[in-house]
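re the bet — no i am not wrong, look at it urself. input seq straight from the record:
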Amino acid sequence: MADSEVAIGVIFLSQTMVGALGNFYLLHHYLLSHFREHTLRSTDWILMHLTIANAVTLLCRGMPETMAAFGLKDFLNDFECKVIFYLNRVGRGVSIGSTSFLSIFQAITISPMESIWAELKGRRQKHIVSSVYLSWILYMLVSSLNLVYLRAKYNKNNTASLKDLGYCAATPTERIKDILYATLLSVPDFLFVGLMVWASTSMVLILHRHKQRMQHMPRAKVCSRSSPESRATQTIIFLVSTFAFFYTLSCIIMICIILSSHHRWLLLQVSALLSGCFPTVSPFLLMSHEFSVSRCFCFISIKNG
């Protein structure tokens, strides 16, 4: 086994273990809060789905990639390959959708009463709940389109013409089918990322206007804690930038892999590592910023009201 393969295996294993532990810890926190208080804030409910999707993505991509990097072969049959690949795609998609819905929900929550978001304030919880469930259904349907072409990579019945997808392989299809599949797979991703960036930009503008108003108020009326809106703005920008960078780059590389007949081993490893970066980092970002950001949102929402 080459040193590069061992190094890649260690990286995959570390990323999977750290990310899974972070997401399971956060999920445990939300479930514990639910059982103690018999209710969940809407943001916590969305984040609970995000952590589930992140954990599914990491386990269904990281563990097979780790085993493959360490030289294990024939550890998946055709059915297992289809299931793991399918769950990975669904988890990745729901992670994108949940992050987008979280941004939209917060944009509606902190928007001033005279804004276009004001009519949605009373109905936002019902709409967000149904939207998150619809994102699961959407990605379950979209991710099932290409399952018939997936095969175990080391199946003896496979031929050398199979397209390598890492720990699985795919039967070559017509070019037009590859383009159609790549389009159907990517359109929901880019749509959710666009909505997330738009909602987050709206929040940044709202926070900026709030900061300008606070500068003209007597100091006694301003929260004693220093610049809560500035910390919220920095957190939003950082989280959105991290998400958009990793997922856009991962999606572009994945499209290139789907559309190409021949690609390098390194490109597949980079794609797999990128797909696990945000699910690994996001729980620690949420744990470090969640409470201060929530307080900032509540403070600003009251002021805007």
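see?? The CA atoms of residues 204 and 233 lie 6 Å apart. told u. also The two ends are 63 Å apart (CA to CA). so pay up
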